[in-house]
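Person: Show me a sequence?

Helper:
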Amino acid sequence: MAHVSAAERRPQLIKAAIALMTREGVTAGSTRAIAAELGVAQATVHYTFGTKEDLYRAVMEQLTGDLIAQVERAAPQDAGFEETIAAMAGALWRTVEVEASGYQLLTELAMLALRTPGLSEARTAHYQQVTEVTERIFAETASRTGYVLAQPPGLVARFFLSGIDGLTMQRLYAPGEPADNTGLRALIAATVALAGGKLELPDVPIS
């Protein structure tokens, strides 16, 4: 059997762990079960990652990277500030509707990290990275469109993401309820109201 390096095995194990824990929950994600999911020996997991916490950290990093890529893809390049917020909110919500299990897994891992010292840095990094990307998009959009924010972009980003998190949790708690975008529309309106910006008119030289 051909030897597979740790560098090659790493993404395979992360993918297997995500598939297993998405399907059966974080508590099912033992190193033995993850190894069986991929069809390798349990020792392979420990050789590649060292500990289960190291593997979980890698899973959180992968899920965070996927979420950040999703946020960046959702931001239009030629829309106004308000339209950008609406586009990002809509794209994130569609993902919740279609791939709720992925959000649920990331939420479960974040809760686990609260009581697992070895995962606390991954939880903090996840929060910081998602917030920083959203803040950057808001700031760049405001600058590009001449929209002067009444509040710091970081505050607007945290408010927006907190609302998305809240709506997501409500959806996870009641998956059988009919889809209703009322809450999402209210979040978009509230975020725009908090931003409270005004359109900055360019200076016109007097000849």
About this structure: The chain has a mean pLDDT of 87. The chain has nine helices and two strands. The beta strands are 147-148, 198-199.
